[in-house]
Amino acid sequence: xxxxxxxxxxxxxxxxxxxxxYARCRQNPDxxxxxxxxxxxxxxxxxxxxxxxxxxKQNELLSxxxxxxxxxxxxxxxxxxxxxxxxxxxxxxxxNIKPEWYPLWMEALRDTxxxxxxxxxxxxxxxxxxVLQPGVNHIVQQH
Length: 143
Ligand code: HEM
What we know:
Elements: H1 14-25, H2 31-42, H3 55-72, H4 77-90, H5 102-116, H6 122-140
Helix pairs in contact: 1-6, 2-5, 3-4, 3-6, 4-6, 5-6
The structure holds protoporphyrin IX containing FE (HEM).
């Protein structure tokens, strides 16, 4: 005798759920400005680094960089190349971004996602961390 089963829901990978969260975040036109506000509040050393930055341009560059951090987690080669360029500009010979600032960058991003994504849960915020950390480590390792 056969039981009629409900079709199995197609399971979403954590990368899919992070991409969907990021799409919801980007519905907030102030998402990237809010990120830099949070980031500057994490340490008095951070705000001054952006005092001469064209923030409209920076927001666009950050938007693409987050896409690459996500795609890096899937082994995407173009994303890896993009992160290598960011690693070069941030290394000790260039912007000299201190490795200890990266956890503050991650915290600021988590704070901003928490505010901007109505679907943010503790699990989703942890998934963001899982997906982005390898790409962040890839950048920091090249300091
Ligand atoms: C994984 C984390 C990060 C990503 C994805 C990221 C991404 C970027 C991108 C795409 C740019 C513009 C292009 C470039 O210069 O390469 C940039 C510039 C910059 N980033 Fe980062 N960044 C990260 C972490 C940090 C941290 C922790 C700091 C520390 C304060 C920082 C400070 C800066 C500064 C000062 C600039 C130059 C701004 C200007 O042109 O005036 N970044 N970042």
